Records
---
Amino acid sequence: MIYWKHDAVAVVPLSLQLPTGNDSRTGFRVFSYRGSHINVRVSINGKDFKAALNTASPVSAMSTDTAKFIFGITADSPGAVPLDSPDGKPEHRPFRYTFQTMTFDTVTVTNPKFVVYPNLTGSRDPNNSERTDNRARKVDDSFGGGISVGMDVLRKLHLYVAYGENKIYITPASAPQSASATPASGPAAPAQ
């Protein structure tokens, strides 16, 4: 239930990041741990993804693999802004890129900025441990490479997490229009 005034509302199913997958045969009970992220479906420039809502990060982020193979964007693309490397190595250098839209069901955020970073998970440990339930996969195969929505986008939204329903209700953070200025029908107002 949304208790604030709103023009548009997105009702998005959520899932929690789990320590073991639902299809795991490890014998461990599936549970949510304290540091889990809420994962939701988002659309970035019309491409659908599962993204983690990360209130601990000031910026939204995605891996260079996602940017390159899904959007055709690299550090040399027009609009890419190079950033400083955290460790001084040029191959670890991220860049910033502004997409046109990010949509949560019916609520759209325009011009979301993403830090695009190299996926270095396992790069120093190519012989990392194998999972006990699936010897074809490594322990850290599910880490890195994902999309996270940081506070730069989340502060443009009002969120209500209904864990009992496994849903998150999302509205633009901007004040709703007055009744006289609201069109009779039309698309949801984008969050700026």
Note: Residues 10-20+34-121+140-172 form a domain with the Cathepsin D, subunit A; domain 1 fold (CATH 2.40.70.10).
---
Amino acid sequence: MKFAFVLVLLAALLGIGQIDSPNQNKWEVSPAAVAASAREYPTVNVVPLHREKNWGGGSCVHASLVMLFRWQGRYQMAAHWRNTYIGGEYANRCHGRLEKEGVRWAATHNDVKFLDWACRTRRGCAVTVMGGAHMVCLVHFDETRAGILDNNNIGKIKWMTRDAFIKEWKGASGWAVTPCYTPPAPLPWVAPK
């Protein structure tokens, strides 16, 4: 009985309801729950505990990857990466290191569709900015705006228009990279008061 109560409570919290058709006996996500899942800002909502500051005088690529590893539930790899790599990084060497470590990863240069995919799938990605001199995490990317989590200022998300971000990113070599594992589910929707 307690188990059934927990299931009903969980279904109510997640916006899941049973279909009342006599020919169907399955669970489906309600349209309200789907719409609510798109309301989490940023989409890649890295908790403060999992944010990583730049270290060693210029490990922005590594700090960004560590945050993405943690977000995607790869805590051991995050710790290993943090303890193994330091200093400046560039695309080819980074990709080689990801291969060497057995990491599943994806990357691009200048393909905006990759950024859309990375954020739509809630993975996020590390992206170059400042003419290629810095790398940050792209934690939100929708039709109108982009959210940046900078490893030099992990206390807040920097918001900018989508177009301004794309211009900045493409002017900074347009490199983006992400581990390809499973991010956490969106926060449950809570009805406004």
Note: Confidence is low (pLDDT under 50) at residues 1-30.
---
Amino acid sequence: MKTFPLGLILGAALLQAAAFDVASVKPSRPDTIGSNTDSDPGRLIMQHVTLKRCIQRAWEVPDTVILGGPKWMSESRFDIEGRAGYPAGYSELNAMLQSLLATRFRLSLHHETRSMSGYALTVAKGGAKLTLSPPGTVGHTNDSAGSVVSKATSMSRLALKLSGLLGVPVVDQTKLNGSFDFVLKWAPDELQDSQSNPSLFTAIQEQLGLRLESRKVPTDVLIVDHAELPTEN
């Protein structure tokens, strides 16, 4: 199967165009507990994160489709901050993060399409129960154990969120275009009982009018060809 190295896909001009004005990459303090990612227009802060977590954010993919790379990629943790020269949005910040990883971590990777066991996100019988976001709504998601509250979220991004929750690839096959507002609440497996919220699969169908169908799905995977511990600032 033909693959394309990251450098050939992006090109030097694109890497320069999509770059933070100011960026910092430092090893995390060893006594740091937990990790956190925060972003505003023009600013991205990632604390106590692995390179693998950075790749997830930069390419908007779940952990399950990132293959290869050195062992430390999932173990060593870093504090990363990037600031753009203008109020860059979510996707623009991710492109800048890609450039930062290529520069500081010497990261190179390529895409492949593989058939993997996972789920197809489809519209359930009776139709979707989703509200189209008003024009101009800024995309935002708040999630916690058993809850996702989203504004201006596409179905492809919902599939990405579900992939992270389920630990397997989820592919959007709803054919629903646009962005939607929704609330999804379910009971994590260990907390289910007769008084709890439904399981995730049931909640998706009852609350969103969607369905997860188990099948082999064509999955875009990222193969890490090379990565180095980051250079000093």
Note: The chain is about 25% helix and 35% strand.
---
Amino acid sequence: MVPRIIPLLLLQKRGLVKGIRFGGHTYIGDPLNAVRIFNKKEVDELVFIDIEATRQARPVSEDFVRQVSDECYMPFCVGGGIRSLHQIERLLGTGAEKVCICSALFEVPGLLHDASRQFGSQSLVAAIDIGPGAHGASEVFIHNGTKSTASDPRTAARMVMDAGAGEILLTSIEHDGTRSGFDCSLIRQVADAVTIPVIACGGAGSLEHIKDAIIQGHASAAALGSMCVFWGNRRAVMIQYPRKEELTECFGSF
């Protein structure tokens, strides 16, 4: 059985970008064009995160979500700057199947709990970004990786599960964009601490890396960034996704 493999696309000024370790973002192109390509590749699911939304104190654009909904053949999740039930309602009503919440998990008490009661856990993804803290231990960061919460990954994961998240998008900031492989130890710590699906994110560079995240890390799914927008060692821009034959060969024995 092939696990869920989800392209994760970052938005900045309505353009598609990708960076390394949450910085140095490079313009990739038009996100709607990427959606059309992923349609042809029959991708099961997409995630869009507006990386400027929280800093600009606004949610991801409803107009953008509407445009994606008009083009997209598959379910998609959107995130960035979401801080209220009204915003969640508007985004789901505009066409998103799920919303992804990060900073507000720690800054808006009760939001996740109230949202799960109103919209259902299946609509809510909790994004947990992990980086090294001041004393070297792994900590949860918010505001696009710029502000530590001093919370450890397992405690944060159990917190969002208890509050009603349907799944966790777990990103290693240190591995993000490196294509050097996932932090399987981190993923396993979190996955083993909760009973909801954990989507591994940060470091995918090959199908073997994804397989490691699933087998060694106990992840339920994998999110791909650089692997879906860059090709080769020179990081040439190319929207891509593993072919069905490759996926079947790699994961057919699961």
Note: The mean pLDDT is 96.
